[in-house]
Amino acid sequence: MPREIAKGKMPKDNKLPTKHIWCVIPVFNNRDTIKDIALGCREILEHIIVVDDGSSDCDLKELLSDTGIIVLKHEHNLGKGEAICTALHFIEKTDGRFMITIDGDGQHYPDDINKFIPLLQDEDASIIIGCRDFSGENIPGKSRFGREFSNLWLRLETGIAIGDSQSGFRAYPVKYLSKIKLSGRHYDFEVEVLIRAIWVGLTIRTVPIKVFYPKKELRVTSFRPFIDNLRISLMHTRLVGRRLLPIPYRKLVISVKKNNFPGAFKHPIKFLGRLLREEATPLGLALAAGVGILLGVLPLVSMHTLAIIYVATRLHLNKIMALSIQNLCMPPFVPLACIELGHFMLYGKWLTDLSWQAVFGSIPERLWEWFLGSLILAPLMAIITAIIVYLITLTLKKRRVSYA
């Protein structure tokens, strides 16, 4: 990466103290870019830490020996999250108050650190994220989709809309970050830390930042699509599971939330309109439809509506879509299909007597067959329905934009 991309200068009118702000650069095999990045950060902040996460392409301590920059080393590659945690423990011992993380691959511009500094106040319980400008050249399509998909999951798990939940250019308050229990140690760390931070009461703010992507053949990344996407998916599964539990989170920061329920009685039309607009993106509506079908197929006799409202509320899904779509699962057709499938799984043959008495007359016996069949049919129907809803809503959205 050219040197001028990495360098940044402290504005002459910037009088804010920065001695308690540390810059952390996790590095894995970024020999060609790390020195320029580190020196660019050093022109803005005094305290720079490079965490060598088991790099094999060079000796970073030797490479940076003439800079005075602190280098912490992992003997083996332990993951980006572990590298950030290593730096966090070091900063705690120095009484540092804030930690700004920036990637070492040249994607970020160090001079954008100046956008974070004015927002860092001593008692501020906020994580600040650099929202990348994806309007430039060479932006990978998978990065655009990955960002949107990650933003959606974060909104489901927290109810908060963030423009770029995947950006590694962030500012953390050290005293709060050190108190959050985190298990992710690779790229799943950056997903988990935002969600758990929101759960314990921290706020999220964003600043616009520039981003540099070289041409595909020149691009260097330590992100491994299969294993890292698997880790991130498993992390989201854990976080969604935790979100569905009716157990309150231990708060680090107490904030007073406004109660919106009175408005439902004073202004029912406005309240209904808000419900209709709730997470009304194509992906959001598709997920709401999938959840509605998934729960609608299960044998939750007389409890489907309550279950759907609970799950949709906890995951900030569009409740109108989830409740409406469940009507596709009403008896007798879907329950009968589940019972047939469950009967075949148990006895190796289809249920041939399809009279009302044979199918629904002995409910206890058929509930087990219904349950077994629904384990296959529910996720299958949910996926198919979600795909159909996504394609329909995406088409309608494109048409509306083209007519506007």
Description:
- The protein is an alpha/beta fold and 404 residues long.
- It folds into two domains: 242 residues, Spore Coat Polysaccharide Biosynthesis Protein SpsA, Chain A (Alpha-Beta Complex), CATH 3.90.550; 143 residues, no CATH class.
- The chain contains 17 helices and seven strands.
- Strands 3-2-1-4-6-5-7 form a seven-stranded mixed sheet, with helices on both faces.
- It is elongated and about 85 Å long.
- The N terminus is likely disordered.
Keywords:
404 residues; alpha/beta; Spore Coat Polysaccharide Biosynthesis Protein SpsA, Chain A; 2 domains; seven-stranded mixed β-sheet; 7 strands; 50% helix; disordered N terminus
Helix and strand layout, with pairings?
Blueprint: H1 3-6, E1 21-27, H2 34-42, E2 47-53, H3 60-63, E3 70-74, H4 80-93, E4 98-101, H5 113-116, E5 126-132, H6 141-158, E6 170-173, H7 174-177, H8 188-199, E7 203-209, H9 225-244, H10 261-266, H11 268-277, H12 282-297, H13 304-314, H14 319-325, H15 333-347, H16 356-360, H17 363-403
Parallel strand pairs: 1-2, 1-4, 2-3, 5-7
Antiparallel strand pairs: 4-6, 5-6
Helix pairs in contact: 6-8, 6-9, 8-9, 12-13, 12-14, 12-17, 15-17
